Amino acid sequence: MINMKKIKVMIATDHVGMEFAKTLRNKFQNAEIIEAYTKEDVYNLIDDVQVIFGWPDGKTFEKAKNLKWIACPGMGIDKIVMYENIKKSNVEITNAPGTHVTSMADHVIGSIVSLTHRFNEAYEDKKKKKWDTEKYSSRITEITKKTVGIYGLGAIGREIAKRLIGFDTKNYAVDPSPSSIPSNIQECWGQEKLDELCKISNFLIVSAPVTDQTRNSINRHRLSLMPKGSYVIVISRGEIVDELALADLIKTSHIYGASIDATAVEPLSKTSPLWKLENVIITPHSSALTPELYEMRRNIFISNLDRFLSNKNLNYVCDKVTGV
Hints:
The protein is an alpha/beta fold and 324 residues long.
């Protein structure tokens, strides 16, 4: 009887639930499922692993001589390809596209309404049992007829555009290579027109992936170009926006408010000036974390692992150079 050696699959995160490894063991008898939920365990157990579900670092990757496939549980692979040895390797990286789109678009719309209607302040007043109608006089902003700039017209950007239809806004976008353009987007420009997008945007929505082109692109200069009384919503990656410049411009009321779900360094430093600003909503990179998201991410990996074990091409293979 031939002793078939099982393929080693490492689950290096509890991102989709602690029961996931058990599910995989029950489904894939021809794979050895290894659980490693700390950096130390991942490093110590990686040697013969061929598949890793998680976000390995460069040091771990150097030790993983048999690795064939990195399955990123989420959409963004930037935390993986930031390591040059991974970026230049032949190891395939897949992601889980589309799983986050619906709830993140909902979050953006909720942020727009919350910011323009000063819900942050109203919540603080409620805690103090304070009824002050005059305080809000002429400080509420109508959304209708305003201009929305969407920086990144990928799946998230398109879903946001879909939800904006009911607000009767004028919508523009910057994306170097959009796969499709929703009918309610007036124009979609390339990266070279990012200045123009900022100049016209009453609401600037940052939904682009972080790449060499987008990193730090929403800088002090571009934030200053935005109309007085505008708003910024950061939904994708914090590394795209100059957070200190954003805080400064909110302090001077050039920008009226911001909703930030992703920061350059996470968690956001307790010393960040953004924490103290009144009309700033900060959420801990949590806009997408619905039960539906986790279920979809589990199913994507299960489907791809089945393909891998059957020697079929993987779905959702990413370009390590562009990071998408």
